[in-house]
Prior knowledge:
Radius of gyration: 23 Å
Low-confidence stretches: none
InterPro entries: AAA+_ATPase, ABC_transporter-like_ATP-bd, ABC_transporter-like_CS, ABC_transporter_ATP-binding, P-loop_NTPase
Distance between the termini: 33 Å
CATH class of the largest domain: Alpha Beta
Bound molecules: adenosine-5'-triphosphate, magnesium ion
Strand content: 25-35%
Keywords: Antibiotic resistance, ATP-binding, Cell membrane, Membrane, Nucleotide-binding, Translocase, Transport
CATH topology of the largest domain: Rossmann fold
CATH architecture of the largest domain: 3-Layer(aba) Sandwich
Shape: elongated
GO cellular component, one term: plasma membrane
Mean pLDDT: 92
Oligomer: single chain
Membrane topology: Peripheral membrane protein
Largest sheet: 6 strands, mixed
CATH superfamily of the largest domain: P-loop containing nucleotide triphosphate hydrolases
Main location: membrane
Amino acid sequence: xxxxxAVEISSLVKRYDGVTAVDGLSLxxxxxxxxxxxxxxxxxxxxxxEICEGFRRPDAGSVRVLGxxxxxxxxxxxxxxxxxxxEGAGFYPGARPVELLTHLSxxxxxxxxxxxxxxxxxxxxxxxxxxxxxxxxxxxxVALAAALVGRPEVVFLDEPTAGLDPQARRSTWQLxxxxxxxxxxxxxxxxxxxxxxRLADHVVIIDAGRVLAEGTPQELTSGVSDDVIRFGGPPRLxxxxxxxxxxxxxxxxxxAPGSYEVTARVDPRLLATxxxxxxxxxxxxxxxxxxxxxxxxxxxxxxxxxxxxx
Length: 310
Ligand SMILES: Nc1ncnc2c1ncn2[C@@H]1O[C@H](COP(=O)(O)OP(=O)(O)OP(=O)(O)O)[C@@H](O)[C@H]1O
Ligand SMILES: [Mg+2]
């Protein structure tokens, strides 16, 4: 990579009492890209992001944001970095959204246009209600607007679309796409794997304070991994018999009653074997589909269906 990374985390460690929340995590975020950090509850996402924001001090390792140390150089970084905390907008419960954004915009040299931001995030219908009277999703949108209004070079967004309705989520995605096009670096966390897939240039999957896997969504879902064939049929088919008909490395599962998944290196011959087996058993394979494994498949496999490995 030629350009200096916007964010560089090296061997970061953070402990709380007995808990090691971040356990030797390293990460580079290229400038002008969107990075999505995925991981189960308690994986260390918020802790990592809050260290990048300068809110927490690392126990070991180093973090550089725009080449600066967020803990020591907070004053220099603050005007250049936008921050949205998890369950945002706990700030100023009596403030009115537009007034708050106008106030924040005046603290910055080259802010975004407040009426534009207000309209884009659907805040124009909120009138003069103070933050404490807004719904959770409305407060969330105000927090996002507050993170962006200063036209930051880097934004850290901790679950920015949690609790947003589908339309607001879409507007947020569009806004983040536009920011990226304008050269802004975005680091966000999410539990929505389709959001990461749709939005991110780079996806980082973490668990127990470490990076388990990273890459573009394509890199994470292709490579050496098998493909998946999905089809529907009557419940409780004899999956053992289908398994026996297929090559040794294939797996067959009834993932839900009447819903089947074959994982294998798919080639035309394997597909023909599968459909012949269906024909021999008088089964119409409904909605038969051959595809790559989804990012969700990869995620669940890495994390383990049980959830966190901590
Ligand atoms: N202030 C704190 N004091 C003590 N332990 C904490 C504190 N904050 C977080 N932890 C612990 O550190 C670990 C990582 O928490 P963190 O909030 O970073 O996870 P997360 O990945 O953001 O999870 P979520 O998806 O639920 O937001 C958890 O085990 C949590 O209990
Ligand atoms: Mg969190």
